[in-house]
């Protein structure tokens, strides 16, 4: 989405807790820019850390000078275990990153967007926030459901100030992490067919699938679109199945 927004003309700053992955994305982002453009701001940040988030947005102020769009993407999923086995620390970490982190970034962005009288916030939700997936998804699903509600509340709260807040709801996506799972026979033979049964297009989603929705929601073409939970899931939620799959026996 960072690359796609840059291609659509946005000046993009990126942040992640993973310095190596961030540097890789920054290199790809620089490749999208016209020769001679300033290097994109890329800042290692833990979005669960309020002071770090404030420092990130201050750096964006210094680097770009205005903030029109926020896309909240990160998530932590330290343990995919059955709920009765979940360690309290893992539950707390998921809440801290997936919910509090999103809220802290929304707050920092809202303060700037209120001063400017406009802005578009896009939270990345999940099909897991609208349907139950099983497979240890409980804490993740709870945080995503809360992000969906946060999206609606903020949309209503700030509509009069020219700020729109929407969410994109992906489904199971072929990310590098999932690509690694595909190598294992257990996943390929037992889990993948269950996932695909919930994806009526018959394919996993691709990160590129979210670029169009993000550019649309960020743009004036979506000026009346506010408080929407937009599935970009190939029809997963329309099936009301959510790709539901229990633990393999
Ligand atoms: N991949 C899927 O199948 C899928 C399905 C539905 C929704 N989503 C949502 O899409 C978004 C991206 O998921 P992804 O699959 O690309 O995952 P990913 O693991 O590739 O990306 C998540 C990123 O968040 C970063 N991160 C983790 N903790 C952080 C923190 N405290 N501060 C800052 N950055 C932090 C990670 O380093 C990583 O780069 C998430 O919000 C996820 O819930 C993904």
Could you say which small molecules are bound to this protein?
nicotinamide-adenine-dinucleotide
Mean pLDDT: 94
Task: Please state the CA-atom Rg, rounded to the nearest Å.
Answer: 18 Å
CATH topology: Rossmann fold
Biggest β-sheet strands, sense, barrel? 4 strands, parallel
Spatial ordering of strands, largest sheet: 3-4-5-6
Ends distance: 37 Å
Which structural class fits the helix and strand makeup? alpha/beta
Helical stretch tally = 8
- The low-confidence parts are none
Q: How would you sum up the global shape?
A: globular
**Fraction of residues in helix:** 40-55%
Order of helices and strands: HEHEHEHEHEHHHE
Domain tally: 1
CATH superfamily: NAD(P)-binding Rossmann-like Domain
Level-2 CATH architecture: 3-Layer(aba) Sandwich
CATH class: Alpha Beta
Fold and architecture overview:
There is one protein chain. The protein has 249 residues and is α/β, with parallel strands linked by helices. The protein has one domain: Rossmann fold, CATH 3.40.50. Helix content is 45%, strand content 11%. The chain has helices at 2-7, 19-32, 50-63, 88-116, 138-158, 176-182, 185-197, 211-218, and strands at residues 14-16, 42-44, 69-72, 119-124, 163-170, 229-232. The strands form two sheets. It has a four-stranded parallel sheet with strand order 3-4-5-6, with helices on both faces. A two-stranded parallel ribbon has the order 1-2. The radius of gyration is 18 Å and the shape is globular. The model has no long low-confidence stretch (mean pLDDT 94). The protein binds nicotinamide-adenine-dinucleotide. Nicotinamide-adenine-dinucleotide (NAD) binds at residues 16-18, 21, 45-48, 73-76, 97, 101, 124, 126-127, 170-173, 175, 177. The site of nicotinamide-adenine-dinucleotide has 23 residues, from helix 4.
């Amino acid at each position: 989405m960072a690359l796609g927004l840059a291609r659509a003309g946005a000046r993009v700053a990126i942040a992640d807790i993973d310095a190596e992955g961030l540097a890789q994305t920054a290199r790809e982002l620089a490749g999208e820019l016209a020769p001679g453009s300033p290097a994109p701001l890329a800042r290692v940040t833990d979005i669960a850390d309020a002071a770090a988030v404030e420092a990130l947005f201050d750096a964006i102020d210094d680097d770009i000078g205005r903030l029109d769009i926020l896309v909240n993407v990160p998530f932590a999923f330290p343990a995919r275990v059955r709920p009765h086995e979940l360690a309290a620390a893992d539950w707390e970490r998921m809440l801290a990153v997936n919910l509090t982190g999103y809220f802290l970034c929304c707050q920092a962005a809202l303060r700037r967007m209120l001063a400017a009288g406009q802005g578009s916030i896009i939270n990345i939700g999940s099909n897991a926030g609208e349907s139950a997936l099983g497979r240890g998804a409980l804490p993740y699903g709870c945080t995503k459901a809360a992000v969906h509600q946060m999206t609606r509340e903020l949309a209503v709260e700030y509509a009069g100030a020219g700020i729109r807040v929407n969410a994109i709801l992906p489904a199971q996506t072929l990310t590098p992490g999932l690509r690694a799972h595909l190598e294992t026979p257990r996943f390929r033979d037992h889990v993948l067919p269950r996932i695909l049964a919930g994806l009526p297009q018959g394919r996993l989603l691709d990160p590129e699938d979210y670029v169009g929705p993000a550019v649309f929601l960020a743009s004036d073409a979506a000026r009346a679109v506010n408080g929407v939970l937009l599935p970009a899931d190939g029809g997963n939620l329309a099936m009301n199945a959510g790709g539901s799959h229990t633990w393999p026996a």
